[in-house]
Structure prediction request, 697 residues.
Amino acid sequence: MNLNTDINYIPGIGPKRAATLLAELGMRTVEDLLTYYPYKYIDRSRFYTIREVNENMPYIQLKGRIISFEKRGEGRSQRLVATFTDSTGFIELVWFKGIKFVESKYRLNQEYIAFGKPARYGTKLNIAHPEMEALTNENEQKNIGLQAHYNTTEKMKTNFLNSSAIRKMVFTALNDSTLHISETLPTSMIQKFALMSREEAINNIHFPKNADLLSKAQRRLKFEELFFIQLSIIRQTKLREQKYKGYIFGSIGAIFNRFYEECLPFELTGAQKRVMKEIRADLASGKQMNRLLQGDVGSGKTMIALMTALIAVDNGFQACIMAPTEILSTQHFQSIHKIIDKIGVNVKLLTGSTKKKERAQIAEELQNGTLHILIGTHALIEDTVEFKNLGLVVIDEQHRFGVAQRAKLWSKNIQPPHMLVMTATPIPRTLAMTIYGDLDISVIDELPPGRKPIATYHYFDNKRAELNKFIKKQIELGRQIYIVYPLIQESEKLDLKDLESGYEQMQETFPNYKISMVHGRMKPADKEAAMNRFVKGETQIMMATTVIEVGVNVPNASVMIIENAERFGLSQLHQLRGRVGRGADQSYCILMSRYELANETRKRLQIMVDSTDGFVIAEADLNLRGPGDMDGTQQSGLPFDLKIANLAHDGQILQVARTVAKDLLEIDPNLELVENKILNLQLIKLQRNVINWGVIS
Ligand code: ADP
Ligand code: MG
Prediction:
């Protein structure tokens, strides 16, 4: 057996389970299996009694029997509750999924070992989705010391591939005398950083001899993973810089200066000024600009986009600004058009609903160079859109676009245009470093003057009457109100029902107010019309699913009510809250939730109440959920998936790995030295199935 052997050949697996592992986890080879790392370890050196259990304990094991099964709740919240007892007390075991399987598998009044993490709901303790094992002498004896646990899917479980089955497979593979686990790092590096060998690390990650060896194994594997990511990213960046020159926008010319003197509607904030300086330096440098602009909602990114575009125009180039929705690009167009109309810059809007005749006009002006700035949606990246000399691309709310879409804009020129991507989803530094490597980052960390912090409250559903009073008072003051409902794709219909019944209730409660409703299932034209009525102030309340999340600007709207706030992620809550607080009035954000909340959810809502700082919230989000889940990062794409490192917690290892990779590439940019050949091989292997993000991000 070697690392490339198909897992089929591991004794005891068989073709059916191998097929399941391939389908569910993409696991094909012995190496894939051995790098399927445990997600937790349980100290099973002792059994606890139910009387000892409290909700602050980590994963523990109990001995006892099930004395009853009961189904509770309906529909989405249906669950199976088993009452589990030993001689000292009772605890509930709860399953939300796989209910049939559990009912048929576990018997009443037989002895089981139950493992899991205790939690408290109201006055009762429970363990959700415990791992169950029949209590036999053998099971009681063998579970000693640190034991690795593996994530499994429902499909895997129904094919008898639970965590302990995986553990057995790994055990078999590691004990195969013909298996050799080769090293992936140069010997000098292993010595210099006192790393465990790969072979020893993989053995200890699955079967730790003790806690100390486990942590050494983790350190080695995390280092390796982050190192190769950095090596890959930094190398791509260098290649890109060698291959492409940037257009030089050397001069700030008449147009920009006239704009600055005659059209600028307000004094720039200090942060906006600083960012403009950074951008101007890039544009004049002869290198292609590849800059990420992070700025909280409302920090004034649009103005930066416009001013950068004007510099392109001043230097004889065209610019385009792409936004993710029709509403948003129209809003950009209107505000930009209004500001610069009088200085003779030709700006046009191109979206899916642009009429044929207008399209033809735009196409002509783009090609003869009389159109200076084109603003639009995805329509901008259609093949039929051809520029005479595109010099700058600005992408707003970049996380809404896939990498492939960005690449397409890039390919509109032989020489790539300067790129400015803007986002209101702050990305913590460690994450940005990993995803973007050497992409330059600018931050607008200051809001325009006069903004009052948005007051945020968390209410349970029983406060509805107070909430309605509050709504009434605000509308009487002349304000407008958003009410947002969550939308989760898999149950879109149910979600829509929530919105629609909410709408009916509001109409009953407030017969004298006009209410708009917007959701994703409406025709774009209807959505647009409803949105516009609210923008113009013809309706007082806007009820919507999350379609309104991005970028709309209605300064008179000062209250954001978020229904079922427990079902939103932190970044999304923050984005939604950013819809208000744009005018001079005191603004409010009210998070409505049901009473029973998991601990983590309660924390999430509390963070929203405590902080309005996008960076604080993004860090907290990263800590609570892990980077894979973060809004906005899924699509940006790491060069390869993280299997063991955690960007929230391993920032220090990342920093070291990055420095090592950088220094190494300084000396040996093509990885040609004998001792670095091994790195090249591993990189090729890791990149084999991965699209080359590094060139475009
Ligand atoms: P975002 O960064 O969320 O895209 P916008 O560019 O939409 O923010 O700006 C939000 C609001 O703030 C707009 O109404 C804009 O005109 C205004 N604004 C931007 N910069 C300033 C400034 N320096 N002073 C005052 N108002 C500003
Ligand atoms: Mg914006």
Q: What stands out?
A: Residues 360 and 366 are 10 Å apart (CA to CA). Residues 266, 268-269, 272, 295, 297-303, 424, 448, 553, 582 surround adenosine-5'-diphosphate (ligand 1) (CB under 6 Å).
